[in-house]
Amino acid sequence: MAHDHDHADHDHDHDHSHPASELSPMELRVRALESVLVEKGYVDPAALDALIETYETKVGPHNGARVVARAWVDPAFRAHLMADATAAMRELGIGGRGGEHMVVVANTPEEHNLVVCTLCSCYPWPVLGLPPVWYKSPPYRSRAVIEPRAVLAEFGVTLPADQRIRVWDSTAELRYMVLPMRPAGTEGLDEAALAALVTRDAMIGTGLPRTPERNA
């Protein structure tokens, strides 16, 4: 199962001033479909732009990263997050459709958590943004349960042999997010700097947070 593992910093540019020669085949198809829908009056361009802006600026993995960073620096918030993730995230203004019922599971030296949706692609959009393509793929959805250690290795995550792997199956009613362990050497970083170390994959469990050296 091949993956592009550098998922954290992709930019999705919806500026339609770009010439067609610079667009990928998928982007060309999306643009053509959008044009047809707008011309037939099925889609309001203003509403479409507002939706795109919401997912680019208001909804995305930066929301989950804020949650993780707060949990790393605030023990009271961490306790609340583990007891009632939905309410704790609401304190930070994070939530909405697709994140109505959240559970956060914490990685420890003894246990690593991995999130999958075996039935379809249930995913906490308000917290992590748009799901990666591989999350929805049948190979990931089946192999994450059957051979999670092998799947993690393909993402570049090699865990100690004695560290258990626990797989959590998200559903339409209940969605999970991983609270990764805080990297060593981050004691002097503020909350914003800590959030910059948190990747989307780390909150799914297919990755680990960046180290301060790697993020420099």
Brief characterization of the structure:
With 216 residues, the chain is mainly α. It is built from twelve helices and four strands; from the N terminus they run αααααββααααββααα. The strands form two sheets. A two-stranded parallel ribbon has the order 1-4. A two-stranded parallel ribbon has the order 2-3.
Structure description:
By secondary structure, the protein is mainly α. The protein folds into 2 domains: 38 residues, no CATH class; 156 residues, Nitrile Hydratase, Chain A. Helices cover 44% and strands 10% of the residues. It contains 12 helices and 4 strands, in the order H-H-H-H-H-E-E-H-H-H-H-E-E-H-H-H. It has a two-stranded parallel sheet with strand order 1-4. The longest helix is centred in the N-terminal third of the chain and has 15 residues. The chain is globular and about 55 Å long. The two termini are 30 Å apart. The N terminus is likely disordered.
